């Protein structure tokens, strides 16, 4: 496979066979396999086993690979997320966890069942003319179901950024990204002090969130699988890549599905219609909610900027991405600064 990121590693079919047998036993046979593209963190392959099962192998970055602070332990986190959703929101289609293991030579890996369908991103890249409204409606309903699951603290699990309140956790998440930016010598279009001051200014809006809901965080189109339903319309068939999950404000999960857009400006978007139909409480997009959404977009664009060198990208090698993120950050900073 072509290694797209320093966090990914090349695999051979012999490597895949070894990891499959370490997962399912020495007599398990691989009939066919190949790499899955689209992600920039782990190495991912699809596998067809001799017993006709289709599975997905996800291999974590090698030990010692420089990562962002929130990316530590993501393989175990993904297994945890899928199990949580399967147990507490079983109506939401997530891959079944088949094996989570470690090996002295290969490190950590995860094997899940392979869900049917193609991602919304893949369909768009293929130039398919489709009505994706029903699938996005289903995504909204699925997120509402996931958000009914409650954690015992805000933020990430383990030793990563977290807090007793949402403002404390969100501030810790921001501080971790700023520390990553310093480590990787990433130049930001705003000073750390200005960012911290801005978040502190809106701490009251953040602390209107009193319940740490389970969040996927990364529901961009590449992680949303779809397939035709019985009526031929495109429906949700799976949520994948749950390794970045955390607990916090449900509004955070409405940012990535409308990447580079403002969900509050599209109240009749199918995602919101599906969410409203399934959520146990009304979806309120008042002034405080809009400020929080602005903070969450700011956090996401900051993350996407800071992660660039860890993925082998620079402002020189990817000038379009860098310029777009800088402009988006500036727009959110300006909007939040005038609220």
Automatic annotation (TrEMBL):
<keyword id="KW-0418">Kinase</keyword>
<dbReference type="InterPro" id="IPR051678">
    <property type="entry name" value="AGP_Transferase"/>
</dbReference>
<keyword id="KW-0808">Transferase</keyword>
<protein>
    <submittedName>
        <fullName>Predicted kinase, aminoglycoside phosphotransferase (APT) family</fullName>
    </submittedName>
</protein>
<dbReference type="Pfam" id="PF01636">
    <property type="entry name" value="APH"/>
</dbReference>
<dbReference type="GO" id="GO:0016301">
    <property type="term" value="F:kinase activity"/>
</dbReference>
<feature type="domain" description="Aminoglycoside phosphotransferase">
    <location>
        <begin position="35"/>
        <end position="278"/>
    </location>
</feature>
<dbReference type="InterPro" id="IPR011009">
    <property type="entry name" value="Kinase-like_dom_sf"/>
</dbReference>
<dbReference type="InterPro" id="IPR002575">
    <property type="entry name" value="Aminoglycoside_PTrfase"/>
</dbReference>
